[in-house]
Q: What sequence folds into this?
């Protein structure tokens, strides 16, 4: 059902510093910051030859990323995103098999539908599905 790894997301306490680290120290192709109000985050994508790294920072006090950073002040891996050809079919199949979704399908940073899956159902890892 899942396709290629779209990105690995890393929550960071300082988005500018993290972007500079990837750009200057690692020599990566780092995109501009994007505010995603519906998700409560500001993101920067680091483009790699085979996938992307998404740097996430809280956007506002109610951001779900703030809770993660409160527990992990230095930041850390937040989730993995996999592509699926049909997000509605993937959701229906996963729910029928007992998986829990977090919220509803929303439009993500790439302008495509996304859905998050409960980490307790996936070996402690928050999974994001993105329609390819």
A:
């Amino acid at each position: 059902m899942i396709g290629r790894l779209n990105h690995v997301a890393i929550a960071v306490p300082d988005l500018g510093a993290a972007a500079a680290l990837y750009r200057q120290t690692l020599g990566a192709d780092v995109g501009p910051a994007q505010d995603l109000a519906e998700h409560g985050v500001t993101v920067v994508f680091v483009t790699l030859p085979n996938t992307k790294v998404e740097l996430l920072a809280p956007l506002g006090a109610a951001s779900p990323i703030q809770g993660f950073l409160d527990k992990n002040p230095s930041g850390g891996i937040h989730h993995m995103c996999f592509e699926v050809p049909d997000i509605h079919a993937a959701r229906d199949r996963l729910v029928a098999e007992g998986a829990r979704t977090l919220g509803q399908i929303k439009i993500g940073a790439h302008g495509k539908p996304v859905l998050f899956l409960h980490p307790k159902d996936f070996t402690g890892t928050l999974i994001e599905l993105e329609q390819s």
User: Anything to note?
Assistant: The mean pLDDT is 97. The radius of gyration is 15 Å. The longest strand covers residues 76-84.
